[in-house]
């Protein structure tokens, strides 16, 4: 919380972002996500226990990815639309399957996974963020997680590479 000159406080919301755990929730990812006000998992979770662990940190919004075919995953939606601090956030696993116009629909942030490639981009006033993969290493891609901080309608995105020894 930041103090304003009029003695009121700005409330900042920290939304932790994670994707493509593929059954592996690394302790480094858990450590980064601690202190989040909410956690978004953008699919390819792999095991229901991952959601249980994340829920012990903060409320969780999770969507089903292409590998999430077990019975526990059937309760998850393929997409979610959430409001955080007055900011509309749309979550889906594969950005290539986006079937709406975020700008026209008033969505300010689109969170996706699937590619395992961390990415932050802005297009037509919409922030697109893929936190990359926090699970098993794939090819030579980094192991990453992310966050968005929302304060007074401003959105600050960040992706970090987890400090994990090369495998």
Sequence-ordered SSE layout with sheet pairings:
Layout: E1 2-3, E2 9-10, E3 12-18, H1 27-33, E4 38-41, H2 48-55, E5 60-62, E6 79-84, E7 87-92, E8 109-111, E9 119-123, E10 126-130, E11 144-151, E12 154-161
Parallel strand pairs: 3-4, 4-5, 7-8, 8-10
Antiparallel strand pairs: 1-2, 3-11, 6-7, 9-10, 11-12
Describe the structure.
This protein starts with a strand and ends in a 6-residue tail after the last strand. It has a single domain, classed as 4-Layer Sandwich (Purple Acid Phosphatase, chain A, domain 2). It is 9% helix and 35% strand. It is mainly β. Residues 1-8 have low confidence and may be disordered. The strands form 3 sheets. Strands 5-4-3-11-12 form a 5-stranded mixed beta sheet, covered by helices on one side. Strands 6-7-8-10-9 form a 5-stranded mixed beta sheet, with no helix packed on it. It contains 2 helices and 12 strands; from the N terminus they run βββαβαββββββββ.
Features:
2 helices; mainly beta; Purple Acid Phosphatase, chain A, domain 2; single chain; globular; 5-stranded mixed sheet
Summarize the structure.
This protein has 167 residues and is mainly β.
**N-to-C CA distance:** 39 Å
Could you say what the CATH topology is called?
Purple Acid Phosphatase, chain A, domain 2
Low-pLDDT segments, ≥5 res: 1-8
* Helix content range: under 10%
Helix-strand pattern: EEEHEHEEEEEEEE
What is the alpha-carbon Rg in Å?
Answer: 16 Å
Mean pLDDT: 93
Q: Could you tell me the strand content as a percent range?
A: 35-45%
